[in-house]
């Protein structure tokens, strides 16, 4: 199997721990990343910015921490769903997310964000935030 031709990676509802390996960035055709409900920790790997075809990033219910990487708004312009719910993300919501003009679902609930919400959220058709 040629892993670099992978389009969907679904690892939901397992007990994976540690960090996402940097090698995920070699999956340049990846469109859908589902890692919901695991125990992944640390930051989202910066190599994920190489996966520019991503339409869905769902990493909810893990133990990710740090701020939302600014490259998400810059390099993942095809994103429709960004689900970061129930992690340990903190800091402000980057204005770079405003560049995600196709984004329809943004779930940032149950984290530790602070500051103001960028005014561009009015452009998203659906936004979840508790």
Automatic annotation (TrEMBL):
- Per the record, a Pfam family? LRR_1
Q: Does the keyword Glycoprotein apply?
A: yes
Its keywords, alphabetically, are: Glycoprotein, Leucine-rich repeat, Membrane, Receptor, Repeat, Signal, Transmembrane, Transmembrane helix
User: What kind of membrane protein is this, topologically?
Assistant: Single-pass type I membrane protein
- InterPro entries (UniProt xref): Leu-rich_rpt (IPR001611), LRR_dom_sf (IPR032675), RLP23-like (IPR046956)
User: GO CC: one term?
Assistant: membrane
User: Does the record carry Glycoprotein as a key word?
Assistant: yes
- Signal sequence, renumbered to the chain: none
Q: Which domain of life is it from?
A: Eukaryota
- Cellular localization per UniProt: Membrane
Supply the PANTHER family for this chain: LRR RECEPTOR-LIKE KINASE, LRR RECEPTOR-LIKE SERINE_THREONINE-PROTEIN KINASE FLS2
Protein name (database record): Receptor-like protein eix2
Q: What lineage does the source organism belong to?
A: Eukaryota, Viridiplantae, Streptophyta, Embryophyta, Tracheophyta
